[in-house]
Amino acid sequence: MKKLIKYLKPYALLAVLCVSLVFLQAMCELKLPDHMSDMVNIGVQRYGIKDAVPERLSAWTLGRLRLFMNAEETAALERNYSADTADTFKLSADMGSEDRETLNAAFTKAFAAVSAVDSGELDLGVTCNAEYAALEMMSESERETLLRSYMEAADMGESVTGQLVAMAIRAEYERLGMDVGAYQLAYIKRTGVKMLGVALLVCAAGIGAGYLGSRIAAGFSRDLRRDVFKKVIGFSSNEINRFSTASLITRTTNDIQQMQVVVTMLFRIAMFAPIMGVGGVIYALRKSVSMSWILVLALIVLIGMLAVIFSVATPRFKIMQKLVDRLNLVTRENLSGIMVSRAYNTQEFEMQRFDRANAELTQNSLFINRVMALMNPVMTIVMNGLTLIIIWAGSHQIARSSMQIGDMMAYMQYAMHVVMSFLFVSMIFIMLPRAAVSGDRVAEILTSESAIRDPETPRDMRRENGGIGTVEFRNVSFKYPDAEEYALKDISFTAKAGETTAFIGSTGSGKSTVMNLIPRFYDVTEGAVLVNGVDVREAAQRELREQIAYVPQKNVLFTGTIEENIKLGAPNAGRAQVERAAEIAQAKDFITGKEHGYEEYISQGGTNVSGGQRQRLAIARALAVDAPIYLFDDSFSALDFKTDAALRKALAKNMEGRTIIIVAQRIGTIKNAEQIIVLDEGRIAGKGTHDELMRSCSVYREIAKSQLREEELA
Ligand code: ADP
Ligand code: MG
């Protein structure tokens, strides 16, 4: 898993950009409820008057308020207010924040006092309308004592005082002839525009981060897929057998897909949720500390529920990939063997096999989805319960005027953010194990070293001594990986340039195995294989394989035209070279007989040509390559006697000086070979020309006799 992190490196810059956008988005989103609470608290409840410092005041009101201010406060007052008209004062626009704080406190106190005097709550024991005259008679300290004792007795909450002050200022504005309705609306509009701006920013940052996140994830998985595929095509048969083709396909597609999903999530949710969670808690605490218990309670309930759900679902998540693998394996096997299974009427059985794999995957997915479906109602309950409790507790506090409505509303939103982010984080924790399994499966491919590797300093094959085209086996013994028995035991021979070396023997005697060792599809267990006098393990694979044109026992044609298939090993070959190869391979007649000739399209797996035609195309493909060594593994078996003979004649004429190694079933095919090697259970039972072997080798005689009889019978 850790190995794969380096695939994110090229995207570091994008990632930083993406994370910054996510951060911006979260910050803005956290700001929104704050603005909303301002709109409610100040805009609606306090007529858009945000603190106790009035913008305009009449001289008359100012005179009354001044009675309740001390020297320092009066000084601040004089600094910041100037005469506007004859009997009004105006707040200067460039007031310092320190002065504003002082004045806010001073005005709050003074407005409260004036309103208490006016309403008679602050009883001065004089007749109506004579209060201010009486107050003016008092000394400053007397007034201060009076006020303090009143304030202590009244014990008004902050919000009530705030409201009171706002009302007093609004009354003052009205007296001065200002349009208080418009003033309030202007505040609401200002806040509204601010909120809209922030919301747009959230939106833009969200889109940007989403785009970048997806780009990073898509790029990451593209790079990963490319490298995995590159690795896989470099695998030797060992690794391919170990992983199984189906699993290699799943790993390159589905597993990387899983990781892509998680990387996207990582850049969006995994960054966003924690910021929102922590930020939500901080902002919520700023709005109200006393309601924190609600948040804690909600989180405890949530954790409990999630713990139950996840402990049930996580193991199932982890085995998901294995089940997908299994389904792929069964599907692949079924589809590639569909003809065989039809011929033996085993569709029923295959169907059952598929059904089993399918059902297992379905069961698992269903289970996971059912459990996940539970999440939704659980979340709804938690969310709504949370809202309910906040409103219940909040309304009590509002009634006691220790909280404002806007703050409660904002608290609710912050609480939602906290709960949601918590949920997201836990979602990541459930996704991660599955992705980690996928990551390991992919990393396993990337870290597997092919058993067949080039040496550090490869020896040059072409310039070495030993002659061009010589193939030599020196006491070769070979065991397939995981096999118990040796497939080849102590094989030694030399195939020389300009000669044909033929292998014959019963099925399973090891003929194809010998052929596989020459292009180094496998490494020998003991002994050595030499090409051009160089041990194949000491040469570069590419160079080695350039020396060899190989027709495997099991032919494969690729989708494309006939010409493209023939040119596979010699992409620069011209039409003439292709036609010559086809002619030697005895394929010309049937190709020109096709509607589109060399442009005829070969369908997937080469199913629109016959077995014999496929074989001849495979031979033509080898002949189109100009190589010193030609290997034909049982390449003439699907040809009729006449074509076989014609092909051999053409080969002998055109392949002068090349090393030809043929595996054959029929004695007739190899009768004229310079050297015939008889294999029996992985050992050499005889070596020589046809005549020599007829005399000396009993195994060869057996084969010859049985075929002769067949020919006589036929
Ligand atoms: P031939 O081509 O003469 O019919 P092979 O060379 O294909 O025989 O096979 C020789 C022996 O090696 C057989 O016993 C076969 O079972 C075994 N064998 C072939 N291919 C593999 C493989 N990929 N893994 C394990 N054993 C194999
Ligand atoms: Mg074979």
Which tags fit this structure?
4-stranded antiparallel β-sheet; binds magnesium ion; 714 residues; alpha/beta; Rossmann fold; binds adenosine-5'-diphosphate; ABC transporter transmembrane region fold; 6-stranded mixed β-sheet; 24 helices
Question: What report would you give on this structure?
Answer:
By secondary structure, this protein is of the alpha/beta class. The protein folds into three domains: about 40-185, no CATH class; about 235-445, Up-down Bundle (ABC transporter transmembrane region fold), CATH 1.20.1560.10; about 465-714, Rossmann fold (3-Layer(aba) Sandwich). The protein has helices spanning about 10-45, 60-65, 70-80, 95-120, 130-135, 140-155, 160-175, 180-235, 235-245, 245-285, 290-335, 340-345, 345-400, 405-445, 510-515, 540-545, 560-565, 575-585, 590-595, 610-625, 640-655, 665-670, 690-695, 700-714, and strands at about 55-60, 80-85, 90, 470-480, 490-495, 500-505, 525-530, 535, 550, 560, 600, 630-635, 660-665, 675-680, 685-690. A hairpin with a 2-residue loop joins strand 14 and strand 15 (about 685-690). Helix 1 packs antiparallel against helix 14 and helix 8 (about 180-235) packs antiparallel against helix 10. Bound molecules: adenosine-5'-diphosphate and magnesium ion (MG).
